[in-house]
């Protein structure tokens, strides 16, 4: 199979699994668990489009300007996003949502989150 169709697996790469990631600031974690894992299944040569699976332990971050356009589907866990107007939405397994580049939000992972993502810069 070529790169035209890529199956995203919840466990990451079938051989190597998920790799350590460091997108979350260390002081954002809300417990002693600082686990953050990622596997990118697809990336354009300039990394302007990415697709993969990501996992993160509970944390809370205030984001003034979301750095990318991102569509996500929650595999497991619980995330509450609060927009700049104070409106909160909670997402759990099976939920799909989108965050626009430049959005102001509070990103609060309440239960270890695993998600599929598609990022466009």
Measured distance between first and last alpha carbons: 27 Å
Overall pLDDT confidence:
96
Unreliable stretches, pLDDT < 50, 5 or more residues? none
Specify the CATH homologous superfamily: Jelly Rolls
Q: Tell me roughly what share of residues is in helical segments.
A: under 10%
Helix count, DSSP H or I runs of 4 or more residues:
0
What is the rounded Rg? Answer: 14 Å
Question: SSE order, as H and E?
Answer: EEEEEEEE
Number of strands: 8
- How would you characterize the largest beta sheet? 8 strands, antiparallel
CATH topology: Jelly Rolls
Percent strand: over 45%
Q: What count of structural domains?
A: 1
CATH architecture: Sandwich
Q: Specify the overall morphology.
A: globular
Structural class per helix/strand content?
mainly beta
CATH class: Mainly Beta
Q: What does it look like?
A:
With 121 residues, this protein is mostly beta strands. It has one domain (22-120): Jelly Rolls (Sandwich), CATH 2.60.120.10. 0% of the residues lie in helices and 52% in strands. It is built from no helices and 8 strands. Strands 1, 2, 3, 4, 5, 6, 7 and 8 form an 8-stranded antiparallel sheet that branches. The protein is globular. The mean pLDDT is 96.
């Amino acid at each position: 199979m070529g790169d035209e169709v890529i199956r995203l697996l919840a466990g990451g790469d079938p051989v190597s699994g998920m790799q350590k990631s460091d997108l979350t600031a260390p002081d954002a974690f809300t417990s002693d668990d600082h686990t953050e894992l990622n596997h990118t299944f697809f990336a354009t040569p300039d990394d302007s489009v990415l697709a993969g699976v990501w996992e993160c332990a509970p944390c809370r971050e205030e984001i003034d300007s979301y750095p990318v356009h991102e569509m996500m589907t929650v595999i497991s866990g619980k995330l509450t996003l609060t927009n700049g107007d104070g409106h909160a939405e909670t997402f759990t397994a099976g939920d799909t949502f989108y965050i626009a580049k430049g959005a102001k939000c509070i990103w609060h992972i309440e239960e270890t989150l695993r998600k599929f993502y598609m990022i466009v810069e």
